[in-house]
Amino acid sequence: MIEIKHFSDCSIYEVYGILQLRSEVFVVEQNCVYQDLDSKDLDAFHVIIRSESGNIVATARVLKAGVSYSEVSIGRVCISKAMRQQGLGKELMGSAVAFIENQWPSVECVISAQLYLQKFYESLQFAAEGEVYLEDNIPHIQMRRK
Question: Which of 58, 45, 50 is nearest to 7 (CA)?
Fold first, then answer.
């Protein structure tokens, strides 16, 4: 089941589940020490996919224009390791893109993609722009969807 909720509409259990998954993927699995709680969640829309048992297994956040970029952006995209290779990434990003197209028609969307996922995002009509850069010691590339 996919849900898209503004932070203010998330229960404390949903917020906990989102942060737990992000910590599991970004901090523990990717061994990346960074400040996840950056205040941007407070006015973000959160795309949530749950398992049949109700646990949050995939999430992303949609930020309004002007928060991270001058355009609308999608970030903190993560899927539980146990749930990968099941098409949840396409489902998660497809829902985020559809939400953006519904909320803000005719706007561009920007992401900061981990470089190893460039082809995945290209399959969703994102195009790379600029040079590869390190973010938290992980190669990234900025991508845009028009």
Answer: 45
Backbone angles phi, psi at 145, to 5 degrees: -120, 125
Residue 136's pLDDT is: 86
Residue 74: helix, strand or coil by DSSP? Answer: strand
Domains of the chain, CATH where assigned: 2-107 (3.40.630.30)
Q: 106: pLDDT confidence band, cut at 50, 70 and 90?
A: confident
The strand pairing partners of 121, in sequence order, are none
Q: Mind listing the pLDDT tens digit for each residue in 39-55?
A: 999 999 999 999 999 99
SS3 115: helix
User: Given strand 72-79, what is the order of strands in its sheet?
Assistant: 2-6, 45-50, 56-63, 72-79, 109-114, 138-145, 127-135
